[in-house]
Amino acid sequence: MSIARLWTVARLELLQRIRTVSWYVLLGIFAVLLIGVTALSFLAFGGVVPDAGQRGAGIYSTIVIITLLLVVLVSPTLSGNSINGDRDAATLAPVQVTFARTSEILLGKVLAAWITGLAFAAVAAPFLIIATLAGGVDPGVVVVSLLVLIVEIGVIAAIGVGLSGIIARPLFSVAATYLVVSALVFGTLIAFGLGSTALSSEATTSYRPMLYNPDGSPQCRDGSEDCWNDPAQMVCGEPQESVYTVPRFDRVWWVLAANPFVILADATPAEYDPQGYPIDLFGQIASGVRQAQLAPDLSSGYDECAPNAQDDIRTPAEIRDDTVPSWFVGLGVQVILAGLLVAGAWARTRTPARALPPGTRIA
Questions:
Q1: C or N: which end of the chain has fewer Cβ atoms within 10 Å?
Q2: Which pairing describes strands 299-303 and 240-246: parallel, antiparallel, or unpaired?
Q3: Which residues are bridge partners to 205 per DSSP?
Q4: For residue 309, is pLDDT > 60?
């Protein structure tokens, strides 16, 4: 494989995009959206986070997540017709008869689509700098979150290019790319919600009430008028049990591992306040996924005649320490999916071709 030929293919692909006015209009709209998101983030976290030194972490995480969201929405359009669009325009065949190999053509188009997606991240850079200067952003969070963002943009670009080589029609390949990306973003959430309900369990809760006198005072075994501080002397009723259904999030939490936003949040080091609660969106998303790993308590109860017991409530920081990360598994699944699609595109694009789809234009 020649790096020079690969870069030549990528450069030609990029030049086609840069020459169009719509490309700059798209980047301008992206910048306007980020201006609004940044302004709203300063207002939102300024009222929610009391510590001014921690507000930058929340604003920074919001901008990174919105950047990933917008790239997810735009990238399929830019990469989903990369190969079959050139085939329809009769510009693919002239490249195939050169010294460029099929793998170099495919990887060059993946690289071009990747750089195109990174252009949106570059537009977001000034806003990320503003959020960082606001204070409270850990350098490790900046490095890891940007690395994951760059990798996710590359994965989405590879999925689009792969489908554009497998599917003959550009419109269908763009739609298929949106469906695959939507399955990762929204489909995992739907499967998580429906799966947890389908695999639900029955839970039992008991309640034993304390009997009261007409004046509201507790009934006491020794006949006294006040036994609030002596549970052994309280007169209690019969325990009451009820059965209800509990969703089992702990059985399907792994479905969320392939979600791009979960990967971003789970891989990024979490920042917590002194009470152990997350101060940014990364920590909040990761805490929700880590909380889902814990099995629910299927047997609970409350006894008014028993001394008040202090419930052991764990903070999100403690839950994160006791649960397992899943971002590397989800990222591995995405990379394997993208690799299989690119391999399928190579099989359909290589020359000489054994067979072509009906109506496919060659030159």
A1: N
A2: unpaired
A3: 242, 300
A4: no
Closest to 351 measured CA to CA, from 170, 100, 173, 84 = 100
Paired tokens of 285: 């998303």
| H-helix or E-strand spanning residue 244 | strand 240-246
pLDDT tens-digit readout, 239-284: 788 888 888 888 899 999 999 999 999 999 888 877 888 888 888 8
Degrees to nearest 5, angle at CA 50 with 47 and 55: 80
The CA distance from 328 to 3, in Å, is 29
- Global pTM value: 0.83
Alpha-carbon distance 165 to 81, whole Å? 8
Residues 6+ apart with CB under 8 A from 284: 265, 278
Compute, in degrees rounded to 10, the torsion defined by CA atoms 349, 352, 354, 358: 60
CA distance 161 to 346: 10
Are the C-beta atoms of 59 and 131 separated by less than 8 Å? yes
C-alpha distances out from residue 78 to 32, 74, 185, 341, Å: 20, 7, 18, 17
Q: How many residues does the chain have?
A: 363
> Whole-angstrom Cα distance, residue 245 to residue 197?
9
pLDDT in tens, 341-357: 999 888 888 766 666 66
- Compute the distance between CA of residue 226 and CA of residue 230 in angstroms, rounded to an integer: 9
Residue among 311, 294, 212 nearest 248 (CA): 294
What does the alpha-carbon distance between residue 101 and residue 98 come to, in Å, rounded to a whole number?
8
Question: How far from chain centre, in Å, is Cα 106?
Answer: 27
